[in-house]
Design brief:
Length: 729
């Protein structure tokens, strides 16, 4: 094999577990010790300042300037006691990553010395260059001013020697340039709308909160093998590589014993996450080799989203200490499962009621049916928008495959819930709706306890499934910022809840009782939203035909899906809820089209380079060796015997010529298609051109290279193969 591949494989094989974790304390002793949470605030802020700050956070009110200085001083003192020397505004631009500019606490005192300080002004506001981040034309290079502003609802935290202050990021002219700003707006809109609806059942409710529990899937690859694969380094996925003889077909990796090296990495990751206040709960092997998953306890949505973004950067940092590289791409390897980020989502009241949990009396059950009906209606009316919110160049490789939700948004409810909703639609206003308690299964083995069944099964083929007391948005990609999907979902539901409440109020004004009005509107919602309800196999070809008949969006063209953000319906719901203006929506689409184009463009360039500079020369050299072998056979053997002996090598030579000529031709055609697409000035048109004329070549060229991999001498193949990449040594 090539020297680079040989060294990489050798180095990976010699890896031993790296034991770096040193925490011998219980998790409770160091949980959130790197976070300026309320417990820490009480130590470093006066009682008066702490109470005022807590009130502002709890009530969602802007922080007064008069307490900002006191909070900044306390925060700086706490951070300095932890050895921190710098601070940064930590925000989430439209790149699916984070951004930060570090400034030192130290500042000249005017007398030739230095003092350490953090003022309230520096805590609450800074001015990053808004034209250097994706902005969709909202900011020009000569109009660069933008602002980052402190989000007190998400506590500051420490990474290494830097105090990280979570912030929003907006343009000088006020438009949102990040994920957090519209997410906060959508959560506020949903809080008000869901509280309004909840009060039809519980007048004492003052506030509703949206909760999120994400499940993060990822791959681990040995660092040496990663470095030896230019495609992994530059695109996050393998652009070529024949699948291993053994991959996931035996189902032996899923929930199997965690490899020792991986377990050591997981231990260190958990320690870092606990220190940062990320409440990790679950870790396990996923289906594909080298694929794993972790998940936390549910948190308030904004904080949960911040924690997921922070987790992704923490994973990369900790993995490098163990000579691993994290792959968050949705489909880094062909032929095995890709990775998603399942977002478990629910709403609760300040009185302790989960609005998606069936209750113990008629009021609770009617409330449950009500919130189910409104959610189904919101998903039905905005299925294309929800699909656009999770669409990307990378997630397109995962969706629709037999390991991920299909690229058609539908809702799974389960047998019992479906039966209850159907019963409600055929009932009268006074009829009581009863839910069965959890049923038990006894296995007939004395020492095995009775198992309690949930009131709904799980459906892995549903992109938006009800799972007992929450909905699971399964279609979100592993590398994505959860906020993209959450703000679309929360905005759609907030608008629909207000529409629902308006219908109820209108009927009551016309003389109906609250109960009658609720019954009639809920039944209408359930009937109208029936097309989105599907409990069957979302992978089947029949479902695609049926979904189209029902009027659901079945498109898979990512650039076209982004059009859903700027339909009349989408603009109406985003503007009515105050989440995003039409200008902001249009700008975000410009960003999405540009990012899509650049990702496909980079993959195309990398594949062209690897094909012509790595694969073709090696394959040609091997083909020359075969030709030389055939020629020498003719010199040694008689004609009749030569024909038999040379048949095999000649077939290989012919196959190689076929594949090599196609690689040469297709790389040239792909390059020309890229040149033509680059001439298109309109970003949407350019993205469509890349999707339609450039992207198909990626799979076509790969097909021929993967066949060459099976022919060329293993000792000559230049890149680590799947059998080496996919199994941790």
């Amino acid at each position: 094999m090539s020297l680079l591949r040989f060294n990489a494989v050798e180095e990976a094989a010699k890896r031993k577990p790296v034991t770096a974790h040193k925490e011998n304390r219980s998790v409770g002793d160091y949980f959130a010790e790197a976070v300026f949470d309320r417990k820490t605030m009480q130590k470093y802020l006066s009682n008066e300042v702490y109470k005022k700050l807590s009130q502002h956070i709890d009530n969602g009110q802007p922080i007064d300037r008069d307490i900002a200085d006191s909070v900044a001083a306390g925060m700086r003192m706490w951070a300095s006691n932890q050895g921190v020397t710098h601070y940064t505004h930590w925000f989430q631009p439209l790149t699916d990553g984070t951004a930060e500019k570090h400034d030192a606490f130290a500042t000249p005192d005017g007398n030739g010395g230095m003092i350490e300080e953090l003022s309230g002004k520096l805590l609450t506001q800074q001015e990053p260059d808004a034209s250097s981040f994706p902005n969709g034309g909202l900011r020009n290079t000569f109009e660069a001013r933008g602002y980052s502003a402190w989000d007190p609802s998400s506590p500051a935290f420490i990474v290494d020697d830097t105090l990280c202050i979570p912030t929003v990021f907006i343009a000088y002219t006020g438009e949102a340039l990040d994920y957090k700003t519209p997410l906060l707006r959508s959560l506020e809109a949903l809080e008000k709308a869901s509280t309004r609806v909840a009060r039809f059942f519980y007048p004492e409710v003052n506030r509703c909160t949206t909760f999120l529990g994400w499940e993060q899937e990822y791959f681990l690859v040995d660092e040496a093998l990663f470095v030896a694969r230019p495609d992994l380094r530059l695109t996050g996925r393998t652009l070529m590589g024949h699948e291993s003889a053994k991959n996931q077909q035996l189902d032996d990796h899923y929930f199997g014993s965690i490899p020792e090296r991986v377990q050591e990495f997981m231990k260190d990751l958990e320690i870092e996450c606990y220190r940062l206040g990320i409440p990790l709960k679950t870790r396990h092997n996923e289906v594909a080799p080298n694929q794993f998953e972790l998940a936390p306890i549910y948190e308030e949505c904004n904080l949960a989203n911040d924690h997921n973004v922070l987790l992704m950067s923490t994973m990369k940092r900790v993995a490098s200490h163990h000579h691993f590289r994290i792959l968050l791409h949705e489909k880094p390897f062909d032929g095995v499962n890709g990775s998603g980020k399942h977002c478990n989502w629910s709403i609760g009241t300040d009185t302790g009621v989960n609005l998606f949990s069936p209750g113990k009396n008629s009021t609770d059950n009617l409330r449950f049916i009500c919130f189910m009906a409104v959610t189904l209606m919101a998903v039905y009316k905005n299925d294309a928008l929800l699909k656009a919110s999770i669409a990307s160049a990378t997630n397109a490789h995962r969706l629709g495959g037999h390991e991920a939700p299909p690229s058609i948004i539908s809702t799974f409810l389960g047998t019992e819930v479906s039966a209850i909703l159907n019963k409600f639609m055929n009932s009268k206003p006074k009829d009581a709706i009863q839910f069965d308690a959890k049923k038990g299964i006894h296995l007939g083995v004395g020492q095995i306890p009775e198992l309690l069944l949930d009131n709904t099964d799980r459906n892995r083929t549903s992109p938006f499934a009800f799972t007992g007391n929450r909905f699971e948005f399964r279609a979100v990609g592993s590398s994505a910022n959860c906020a993209s999907a959450m703000l679309a979902l929360c905005t759609a539901l907030a608008y629909q809840m207000n529409d629902f409440a308006d219908h109820i109020d209108g009927r009551v004004k016309k003389g109906e009782s609250d109960e009658e009005a609720l019954y009639h509107v809920i039944r209408e919602y359930l009937q109208d939203s029936e097309p989105i309800h599907f409990d069957g196999n979302g992978y089947s070809d029949e479902w695609r035909i049926e979904a189209e008949r029902r009027g659901l969006n079945i498109d898979t063209n990512v650039p076209l899906l982004y059009d859903s953000y700027t339909t009349e319906q989408s603009i109406k719901i985003f503007e009515a809820t105050g989440v995003l203006t039409q200008a902001e929506l249009e700008a975000r689409n410009e960003v999405k089209w540009e990012i899509y184009t650049k990702k496909v463009q980079i993959e195309s360039r990398v594949l062209g380079d690897l094909s012509l500079n790595h694969i073709v020369p090696v394959a040609t050299k091997y083909q020359t060796m075969l030709l030389d072998n055939v020629a020498k056979l003719k010199d040694v053997f008689p004609e009749d015997e030569y024909e038999k002996l040379s048949e095999g090598p000649k077939n290989l030579i012919s196959k190689m010529s076929y594949h090599l000529s196609n690689v040469h031709r297709m790389v040239y055609e792909m390059t020309e298609a890229r040149k033509i697409a680059n001439q298109i000035e309109d970003l949407r048109g350019r993205a469509l051109a890349y999707q339609e004329t450039v992207s198909p070549y990626l799979d076509q060229i790969r097909y021929h290279i993967d066949h060459l991999e099976l022919i060329v001498d293993d000792n000559m193949w230049p890149l680590p193969k799947y059998r080496e990449l996919l199994f941790v040594q």
